[in-house]
């Protein structure tokens, strides 16, 4: 795993895998009542359909129970999924969290384009987010990993709300989001070798679309708090119960 400094402490977050570049542990962050998010219980990632046989073997030690895929049905068909891999013990849960196809032309001229998209996920994607957090709040789902295509946008929004309701400070949530930039760099290097055409296409997109800038997540957090009152209030607004939120905290903080 890659050593990352968070909250003044050295924490291993990134798992070195052959076909996946943004698989990392959300544990170790300081949350409510001076407790910390438990290591090895909840992970975020990019497309697990790209896992190699070696990757699948390496991940066995995590004893994953649930893989939560946030991509659309079309993405699963085009890019593969964990569900199609052989000998995968974890339960596969598919909860599409919007079609977030980018608008490159708008991204060229709107520096806050991703902020707008993340707000859209939180509002228009609320029914799916309700299902996501009901799944994650069930302790029988743990250890759980949730992912999208790159593990940046849809996954980043879920991670933001999850860490927020666990009491992780906004600055730390922003830092976690920004770690994705390391993964994007590694992914592009990998694409250069296995799919040069795809690598060229990705590099032709506005840089902001593949970026994980702290400013973007800071703006979204500020908007969520000002609009709903906080992370717990947001989850209650979309239908997650107090009991489910309490279960989430009991299961993931220690």
UniProtKB/TrEMBL annotation:
InterPro entries: Prot-tyrosine_phosphatase-like, Tyr/Ser_Pase_IphP-type, Tyr_Pase_AS
Domain of life according to the entry: Bacteria
SUPFAM superfamilies: (Phosphotyrosine protein) phosphatases II
Record Gene3D superfamilies: Protein tyrosine phosphatase superfamily
GO molecular function: phosphoprotein phosphatase activity
Matches recorded under Pfam families: Y_phosphatase3
Similarity annotation: Belongs to the protein-tyrosine phosphatase family.
Descriptive protein name: Protein tyrosine/serine phosphatase
Organism this protein belongs to: Ferrithrix thermotolerans DSM 19514
Phylogenetic classification of the source organism: Bacteria, Bacillati, Actinomycetota, Acidimicrobiia, Acidimicrobiales
